[in-house]
């Protein structure tokens, strides 16, 4: 009996370890491979078309991907890294461990022109302030209006030093205001209720507790509330200056033992088997036009007139200075 | 009989090496992992970090703020803990005393996202407290965000821990002392001066160092409730340097500064907390009448304990209320229960390992002290606290470098998580066990030496009766801390087979907010269950493992009747 129980526990802990075929190792972030993420469906779809297995290795964030890659260097078991964004890809490129994708990326359709020989985008979204319609009937119509709003309008934001949306807002402000950004941050500060470590703290612990009517998130967040929670209570505020773009990308690792298979995976990434899983499971826009496969709720999302985006190299070169600038503006 | 004689002459585990060996090896391993982490960072140092650090007014401000907020948090936690502990010891029959004790144990181990959710729901801008103020027509509003919020959260986590350890210490004041105090009709103040303060005095340096370190290295709480980057701890700066700037040199430097600040505090604490007990402790359930337990005192104690109960309970209640619908919807979800099974397996393993490590380290340090190597003893105990001071990220990096070739399957990952969690819980285990372990009376030890009671029997007859209850408390802390852990599991776990906290974060990341609240509720319930169960087990454990037939060396030594009296 005890042995049986142990055996059962063993299965709980380690579902399906043995690999007979070729294994493609994909480094990614946890929510991509969780039960609700796109990972499981994508794995099934890709494995159906090859005599191989995908092994997802989840590291705790996209930054951790680069970190792990650097630590492992040429001995890395990774074939693919999936989940870098525009702000971490320069560091990833600098490791020298990634190689050009060599695939046809003409299907990619992003709000900006994407030309990169190493990184293939698989989804995108805009940063946006999500607001609670029960608390706030008419949200500010622009970033400028938010900055000049009365101080009793409270917002929750994330820290650019520890969070992707946090960094997104910093770049958003920079893209609009340039050298004036620190001054604008000072004006915005009285409206900031608090600055959290990450998205979960901001969204779950504070926003869902009704602490403030607005939270920094993604323009696609309401899609989930509408499609799954069946509520239109939470909406994104559209700002007239335009919204900052978030792009998620993947790349091949130079020391991969299966370069052909890795290439095949990157090609598959732009096909419906992968792209159709993105909208509701990663709650982002797919990187290609998937036509009717795009859920209807996505039609109700904001469609910014203007897309703001700073080149990854520029961000990489200035991030440190911009963060100190931000700190000096706000840490008083 | 001959067999028995042989056993008495050579009891199991009676070789001196068994007292020192395991503890030394474990301390060595911990030191190796920590220095590998730091070393790896320093090795990748690109220079210039030191100069930049001293030039940056921001970093100076961060260090200063870390020290000030940790010192304030510690002071307030201890100042609140002491009267609560005294009231709990005075009011043995207070209704809900047991519930309050379990709640006090629980608050420390709550995962920070759960605690923050509860604290915000109660003490936030639109929380229960402010709603209550509004409905009572009071114009004043409590603002959670800022230093006051950080202090509130740190008190929420640490005051109960401190009070819990204090209660344990106060309860070990010998019954004979209470008897005398009772006969003399000592006032509350006199009891404090003559009995309680002397007992707490030697506890406080270590306890203060522990609380200070916890607050000093606090991360998510400080960021979320601090209101902005002007309230940042060194830990945040380390994270930033390591994760976003790839500036390993700066990360290592900051980690070393953290090590120096907390390390010197521990050194100070171990110097002042080291005075040997003049009188040994022994537990007793006998109660002697005290003048300060009746009438007005009773009401005052009741009010204090009631207030403390509400302070701790409200955030947990808020979390629970939010979680009920989610848990009800997902109660049949296989994933929820398999995650729980995985969590329990890892946590119980980690708990047992942690308690064994703690005992080994304490045994080795007391062995060293007997051999008059006081410095070595202090170093051994310090190694048990290293995991508090060295950031998890640095530890993780160190382990990664040491064990990289072996990293493979899910099971290995979980084993690694178990080991690191055991190390993370070690400081709490040591804190709970150190007092009882060192309270075997010197007289009893001398007699045991003369009679040649060594090895396993020494442990069985001398230590077991004194530490059995603290042992279950330490085990409960270790299991619960490991169960609530997210930072280590995030580094080495596998999302396809998550533990309960991992599942919680996955649900959050996928906007499964109701389900996440349900998972949080289950997690909190399981944590509470662990403390309740182990407390029960502790109460039922026999005084001695097996009753000695012929061996009863001391039974009437007034100062050392540890085994004669049942507690």
Task: Give the helix/strand layout.
The complex is a heterodimer of chains A (332) and B (567).
Chain A: H1 2-13, E1 22-28, H2 30-33, H3 39-48, E2 52-58, H4 62-72, E3 80-85, H5 89-94, E4 98-99, E5 120-132, H6 143-147, E6 155-158, H7 164-177, H8 181-188, E7 192-196, H9 199-206, E8 214-218, H10 221-227, E9 234-237, E10 243-253, H11 259-269, H12 272-275, H13 278-281, E11 285-286, E12 307-308, H14 312-330
Parallel strand pairs in A: 1-2, 1-3, 6-7, 6-8, 10-12
Antiparallel strand pairs in A: 3-10, 4-10, 5-8, 5-9, 5-10, 5-11
Helix pairs in contact in A: 8-14
Chain B: H1 2-9, H2 17-43, H3 49-55, H4 57-90, H5 97-109, H6 112-123, H7 128-135, H8 147-170, H9 175-184, H10 188-201, H11 204-216, H12 220-226, H13 234-244, H14 248-272, H15 296-330, H16 334-370, H17 374-389, H18 392-403, H19 410-437, H20 442-450, H21 455-483, H22 487-492, H23 500-509, H24 513-540
């Amino acid at each position: 009996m005890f042995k049986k129980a142990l055996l059962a526990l063993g299965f709980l802990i380690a579902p399906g370890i043995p690999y007979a075929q070729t294994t493609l190792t994909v480094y990614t972030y946890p929510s991509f491979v969780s039960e609700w993420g796109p990972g499981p469906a994508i794995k099934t779809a890709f494995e159906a078309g090859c005599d191989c297995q995908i092994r997802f290795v989840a590291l705790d964030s996209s930054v951790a991907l680069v970190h792990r890659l650097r630590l492992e260097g040429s001995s890395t078991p990774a074939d693919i890294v999936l989940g870098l964004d525009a702000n971490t890809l320069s560091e990833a490129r600098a490791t020298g461990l990634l190689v050009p994708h060599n695939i046809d990326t003409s299907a990619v359709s992003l709000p900006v022109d994407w030309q990169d020989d190493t990184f293939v985008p698989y989804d995108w979204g805009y940063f946006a302030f999500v607001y609670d319609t029960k608390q706030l009937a008419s949200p500010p119509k622009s970033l400028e209006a938010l900055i000049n709003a009365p101080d009793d309008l409270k917002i929750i934001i994330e820290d650019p030093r520890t969070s992707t949306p946090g960094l997104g807002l910093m770049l958003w402000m920079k893209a609009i205001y340039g050298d004036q950004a620190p001054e604008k941050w000072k004006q915005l500060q009285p409206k900031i209720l608090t600055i959290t470590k990450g998205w979960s703290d901001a969204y779950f612990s504070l926003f869902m507790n009704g602490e403030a009517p607005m939270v920094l998130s993604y323009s696609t967040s309401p899609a989930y509330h509408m499609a799954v929670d069946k509520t239109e209570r939470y909406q994104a505020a559209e700002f007239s200056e335009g919204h900052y773009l978030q792009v998620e990308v993947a790349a091949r690792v130079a020391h991969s033992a299966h370069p052909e298979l890795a290439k095949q995976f990157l090609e598959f990434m732009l096909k419906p088997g992968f792209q159709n899983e993105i909208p509701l499971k990663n709650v982002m826009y797919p990187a290609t036009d998937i036509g009717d496969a795009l859920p209807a709720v996505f039609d109700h999302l904001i469609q910014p007139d203007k897309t703001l985006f700073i080149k990854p190299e520029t961000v990489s070169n200035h991030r440190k200075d911009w963060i100190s600038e931000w700190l000096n503006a706000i840490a008083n | 009989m001959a067999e028995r004689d042989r056993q008495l002459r050579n009891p199991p585990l009676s070789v001196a090496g068994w007292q020192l060996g395991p503890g030394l090896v474990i301390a060595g391993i911990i030191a190796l992992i920590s220095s590998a982490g730091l070393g790896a960072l320093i090795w990748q140092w690109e220079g210039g970090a030191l100069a930049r650090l001293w030039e940056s007014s921001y970093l100076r401000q961060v260090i200063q703020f870390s020290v000030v907020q940790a010192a304030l948090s510690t002071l307030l936690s201890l100042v609140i803990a002491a009267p609560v502990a005294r009231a709990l010891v005075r009011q043995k029959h207070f209704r809900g005393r047991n519930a309050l004790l379990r709640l006090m144990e629980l608050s420390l181990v709550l995962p920070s996202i759960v605690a923050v959710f509860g604290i915000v729901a109660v003490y936030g801008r639109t929380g229960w407290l402010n709603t209550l103020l509004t409905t009572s027509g009071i114009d004043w509003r409590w603002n959670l965000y800022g230093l006051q919020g950080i202090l509130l959260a740190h008190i929420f986590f640490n005051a109960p821990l401190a009070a819990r350890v204090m209660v344990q210490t106060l309860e070990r004041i010998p019954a004979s002392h209470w008897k005398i105090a009772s006969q003399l009709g000592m006032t509350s103040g006199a009891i404090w001066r003559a009995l309680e303060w002397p007992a707490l005095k030697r506890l406080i340096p270590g306890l203060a160092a522990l609380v200070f370190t916890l607050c000093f290295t606090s991360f998510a709480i400080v960021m979320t409730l601090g209101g902005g980057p002007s309230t940042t701890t060194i830990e945040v700066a380390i994270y930033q340097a390591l994760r976003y700037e790839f500036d390993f040199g700066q990360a290592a430097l900051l980690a070393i500064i953290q090590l120096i600040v907390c390390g010197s505090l521990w050194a100070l604490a171990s110097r002042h907390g080291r005075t040997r007990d003049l009188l040994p402790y022994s537990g007793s359930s006998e109660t002697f009448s005290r003048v300060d337990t009746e009438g007005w005192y009773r009401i005052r104690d009741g009010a204090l304990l009631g207030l403390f109960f509400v302070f701790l309970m409200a955030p947990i209640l808020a979390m629970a209320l939010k979680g009920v619908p989610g848990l009800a919807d997902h109660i049949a979800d296989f994933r929820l229960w398999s995650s729980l099974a995985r969590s329990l397996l890892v946590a119980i393993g980690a708990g047992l390992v942690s308690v064994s490590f703690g005992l080994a380290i304490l045994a080795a340090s007391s062995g060293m002290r007997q051999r008059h190597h006081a410095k070595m003893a202090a170093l051994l105990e310090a190694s048990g606290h290293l995991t508090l001071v060295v950031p998890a990220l640095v530890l993780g990096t160190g382990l990664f470098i040491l064990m990289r070739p072996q990293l493979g399957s899910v099971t290995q990952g979980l084993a690694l998580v178990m080991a690191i969690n055991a190390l993370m819980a070690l400081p709490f285990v040591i804190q709970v066990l150190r007092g009882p372990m060192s309270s075997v009376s010197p007289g009893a030890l001398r007699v045991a030496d003369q009679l040649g009671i060594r090895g396993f029997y020494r442990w069985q007859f001398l230590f077991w009766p004194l530490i059995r209850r603290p042992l279950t408390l330490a085990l409960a802390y270790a299991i619960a801390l490991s169960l609530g852990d997210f930072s280590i599991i995030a580094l080495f776990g596998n999302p396809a087979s998550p533990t309960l906290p991992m599942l919680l974060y996955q649900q959050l990341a996928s906007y499964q907010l109701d389900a996440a609240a349900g998972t949080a509720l289950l997690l909190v319930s399981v944590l509470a269950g662990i403390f309740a169960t182990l407390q029960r087990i502790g109460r039922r454990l026999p005084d001695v493992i097996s009753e000695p037939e012929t061996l009863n060396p001391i039974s009437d030594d007034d100062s050392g009747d540890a085994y004669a009296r049942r507690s």
